[in-house]
Amino acid sequence: MDQNVGAVHGDNHAFHNELRRSLVHLVSFQPGNEKPFSVAAIPIVSVNGFCYMISHSKVFRQQDAANWQHRVIFPDEIIVMLRIEDVIIQGSLAAFSVNTTAELPNPVKFSEQQVSHNQEVHTVNFEGVMEPSLLVRGRVTHVDQTAFFHDCTPGSFTALGSPVFNERSELVGICCRNDGVIGALNMNRIAELLSEINEDMVNMSLSQIKTQGEKDCSGEPCWLLNKVAGEMFNTKFGWRFGSWDSQDWN
Fold first, then answer.
1. pLDDT digits (tens, 9 = 90+) for 194-216
2. Whole-model pTM above 0.85?
3. Its domain of life (predicted)?
4. Which of 80, 132, 142, 220 is deepest in the core (most CB within 10 A)?
């Protein structure tokens, strides 16, 4: 593990400030449980009062998720309620849009390159705070076709899908496994899951997806949710799912 495992405001001030303007806080409350689930939602397009975001789907896949309360907290602390029926799930990825009068966050930058062994990466601790307060530094320990592993200090924020950034503050993955080692979906896998949500995105890179989204967004319903690939079905809770891919873990 990297000996400088924790990078707080002081030693990474510019990086921290950039994330403050980009990441959105998703807080989910389970009925009867005072401790919420906190995770970072990742804006990929912000335009015309709409913010289009992705996150790990775990919090939306709980047995009673239809009864949970989901709050989207923007960087200026304006809170918008998220309805579970407005969330599309494809495997480990959730996609949703929010219409808001809040100051729109800066879309996250995507890395055009996959991570490499021993590359420095950072996860983001969003637990119990209104803004990301701690960058947790580590290094890539193993690289696979659709995922990679890293040795950042684990926590519930990694179990719930912390985004992973490189040293240039570009998104390189989303944490998806937290048992012993931390696994993360890489950018190829994220793009693949998005293409399964919207078939128009097949064979697009994430940068192309982002560009297409910026062209398409004109106050219409979320462009991510217009065409959902695969058979979608309703559960007894009334929420919608795509397929679950076991390789993405839980």
1. 888 766 656 666 666 666 655 55
2. no
3. Eukaryota
4. 132
